[in-house]
Amino acid sequence: MITSSKREALTISSCPSCGSAAIRKIKGKWTGTFQGKTFTVPGLEYFSCPKCHEKVYPPQAMRKIQESSPAYAKSRLVRRAS
Length: 82
Hints:
Blueprint: E1 2-3, E2 11-12, E3 24-34, E4 37-48, E5 55-56, H1 59-68
Antiparallel strand pairs: 1-2, 3-4, 4-5
């Protein structure tokens, strides 16, 4: 079951994929790749199921991943109005 409100952080008591109650909140370094570039997000909090290896990322975690990802980096090219 997943519950959430604007005042509370996301809480998950069972895995959405396999239903296991063994899902736990993890805090640690997360590494991803985009177009051959590796990037790391330190101190990321997300949920991980040891039974089926499903990972669930709360909105705050997704924002941190997007902020660190080269996929969301702003282009250095600036268009000028003519």
